[in-house]
Write a structure and sequence with these properties.
Strand content: 15-25%
Helix content: 10-25%
Largest sheet: 3 strands, antiparallel
Low-confidence stretches: none
Order of helices and strands: EEEHHH
Structural class: alpha+beta
Distance between the termini: 61 Å
Mean pLDDT: 80
Length: 128
């Protein structure tokens, strides 16, 4: 379940609404009648991404990499864009299509490169 922040728009009973603070209370403010279009989505939080990845059987590490790839720490409210500069309209679909690979599953073994400790040169006249 997504947490809704103050001033964040969402749909309720056919209207686009948002929570507003009036004094010490919080009220729902009706903005306009909903036109049937999807509301402009905000970027998910890291916690939402991790939760989604874990729910689908993928690692927290790959969820964090996904989040860091698309988010801009200098402009966190700027909409996500992919490598071609196209807006990411559905981050969950992007995760399924691009990031949900076997290597990112929970418990997947990671190959670790072993450094070379010495080099053996080819003896003169030897053919390999």
């Amino acid at each position: 379940m997504k947490k809704i922040a103050l001033e964040e728009e969402f749909i309720l009973e056919g209207y686009v609404v948002k929570f507003i603070k009036e004094g010490s209370s919080i009220k729902i403010s009706r903005i306009r009648k909903h036109d049937g279009k999807k509301p402009k989505s905000s970027n998910p939080s890291l916690e939402e991404v991790i939760s989604y990845f874990k729910e689908k059987g993928y690692s927290e590490h790959s969820a964090t990499e996904f989040f860091n790839y698309y988010s801009n720490p200098d402009k966190p409210d700027e909409p996500w864009k992919d490598s071609q500069g196209t807006l990411v309209k559905d981050w969950q679909a992007k995760a399924r299509r691009v990031w949900f690979k076997d290597k990112n599953k929970q418990g997947a073994q990671t190959l670790i490169a072993t450094p070379i400790t010495h080099v053996v040169s080819k003896p003169k006249g030897a053919k390999f």
